[in-house]
Amino acid sequence: MTDSGATPTSLTEHEARDRAALLDVDRYDIRIDLRELADGERWLATSSIVFSCRRPGTSTFVDIDGEVLSATLNDIELDVSKHAGGRLPLPRLAAENMLTVSSVQTDTGSGNAILRSVDPQDKLVYVWSTFEPDGAHRAWACFDQPDLKAVHGFQVSAPTEWTVLSNSAAEVVLDRDDGGRLWIFEDTPRLSSYVVVVNAGPFHAMRDFRGGFSLGLYCRQSLRPFLERDAAELFELTEQGLTFFGERFARPFGQERYDQVFVPDFGGAMENWGCITWADSFLHRVPPTYAQRGFRALVLLHEMAHQWFGDLVTMRWWDDLWLNEAFASFASAWASVSATEFTDAWAAFLAQEQLPAYEQDAGPASHPIRSAVPDVDHAFASFDAITYFKGQAVLHQLMALLGEDTFAQGLQRYFDAHAWGNATLDDLIDALGTAAGRDLSSWTASWLDRAGTDTMSLVGTTLLTSSPDGGEPRRHALRIGSYARTPDGLAPVEVRALETAGTTTFLLDLPVADLHLINDGDLTFASVRADERSLSVLLAEAAQLPDPVNRALAVSTCWDMLFKGELSTGDFLDCVLAVLATESSPGVVQPLFTLALRAAEQWSPAVLVPRRLTRLAEVAAARADQPEHRLPALQTLAAAATAPEHFELLDAAATDDVDLAWRVEVRRASLGRYDEAAVAALLARDPDPDARVRAWGVSAARPLEEAKAEAWDRVWRERAVPAGQPLVDFAQCFWRPVQHELVLPWAHRYLDEVAEVSGGGLLALSGLVRHMRPTTADQEWLGRAQDLTEGDALAPAIRTVVRIVADQLTRMLDARA
Ligand SMILES: [Zn+2]
User: Fold this and answer.
1) Which of 453, 476, 521, 589 has a 20 to 30 A CA-CA distance from 658?
2) Which of 146, 179, 202 is the C-terminal boundary of a domain?
3) Is residue 66 left, alpha or beta, with left meaning phi > 0 and alpha meaning psi from -120 to 50?
4) How far does the centroid of ligand 1 lie from the alpha carbon of residue 16, in Å?
5) Annotated active-site positions, please?
6) Do 316 and 189 share a structural domain?
7) pLDDT (tens digit, 9 = 90+) per residue, 153-195?
8) How many Å lie between the centroid of ligand 1 and the Cα of residue 525?
9) Does residue 424 form part of some domain?
């Protein structure tokens, strides 16, 4: 018996390559005993691995981080005292091998691979796993790299009252003589170690059979009413997505069963084959807004797209992680507009996700979309807005360049050639290029290997394109829309499709128009700058454009100018508030309200903040009686309310909306009107098992030193605020921009914490650092942040976050001055 002792060694690409060249893994049989987890922390596993070795007599290692109880290789006992750094040496391999390793893991609280959670309301215990990039070897022994795929057969012992869920369907469930039940699952297809999963607990289950698939939805018992409320919509979206992808990829999803499991204290969702895990904050505790439903649909479709792109065909190494993620995000928007009710997904994407990508690409944390990943610890280092959202926009651009049908044919080629195996970016580009009859190598180099955003501007009838590094700009496939003022708004005179080459593109016969909109329809990823006349129309009359994508494009262009110091916050607010006064597309309304709030609160000089918040509040109040826009309007009003009539309106609306009621109390508390009795009443009224976190948020918003100190401990010391959306909301309560003087020392504390943060998975830590970022700073803070990011003290993923935060704060301080 031995403990892994030292910090686990991060697998390098070199080691992974060597091991993949040496081994072929046939199958894993994994027996897990979860019975002690009902009231303890021990997770026991025995992993039996059948694999072959191409050079018998050589040695390698298996990954296992935990306590190894025993290990045999080809019936010979291994010396487990050699287990160190998360690796157990495997000496003198035979041509065909059988390895069996028994291990125990007791780290089920840090969010690292295995998580055990106790529901605060009913005290029921739930256990789930999440392994990307290399968590699987914290649960059992395995060759933990994406290109050693194998069949997995799971046998899980669990307390009698628990349901166990894994990638495939349970074949049989037996009562065990020594207590509990044994769940035996069907073999999976060949899967990478990071997409297998075991979830267990007394879940509430809902199942339906649709479109040839057996669909399951699971959640904690305490969230049952929220799942039941939304199940019909989730089942329908799941069916729509499976049908769309099955047709577009010319290959149906590879098994009948498709489960989605909502688990506590989790950020985001994970694409485990056939068994998606979701943060259960997606089961909104009050009926979700259109934008929340639209975003949830995107997440559902994103994880589903991974079943093909990621699980069926898997990246060879983590340097293509960006492609895995960008593709899934791209495909989710594609499916959303093509197959679901959320047809404005590209407009919402622009307003919500593409903007952060433009922001990051303009600052010091810019990087090429793809980059080398020397070891697993660096897999998530560039897991950011560029990886996901610029990558997504660039794939959208590639589809615009090739045409949708050709693009789909290329994907079919790719899936056919590499099904159940591994592939690289070059394999994808080859398949697409062959389908299109086009050499895409220069496209790859210019879009994926160069950082920064091209700028396009119109001078007369000449479209100028420039690259930030002064080099040859990329080739862009785009549209230019020319619009004339009419009594009914801006009407298109012409929408022209073109491909640019080099710096100068002549637009012959460009019609006379009041507004020439570069990148009409948002097909390419570029900063666009309108000519002078078009800009004045854009600023004043963007609301009159006929398409929500173009209205979002107009506002994004103005935001890009504000971000780069070319437009004042006041001019930006004029533009966005005019659009918000009439915007009809609900997918755009909510992100634009968020952007307007950011500008008014964080990008305005302190003396102007109250007046600007009042303007925003008036626009929000005016939209609150329109059913489609009511929720985002009221939520914005709750964040910006200043006048007594705002609070009257909010209090009336909050009588049957407990979420809004919490938001109003946060606003009151931040203005120094904390009402303890109101908080107690809300706690009693709120059916959410995590409602205490909302109460902590109200408390954290108070303009009091002790309130900030208490909130700080909850986040950094106790780690008591659940990851994901609850932490985002809590951080917003804490960092009230109007409390600049009070929170400034805490902004400095943030840098101390960041330098010392440890414990928990890297994803959880970078989420913590990202979500708790300050919204104010001073020059000293900026200097400290720079020193910190220039040294080696920070993990790469965390350094990236701090760089982005520092760049934003620098620009914000400039705009406030
Ligand atoms: Zn993903």
Assistant:
1) 589
2) 202
3) left
4) 22
5) 303
6) no
7) 999 999 999 999 999 999 999 999 999 999 999 999 999 999 9
8) 21
9) yes
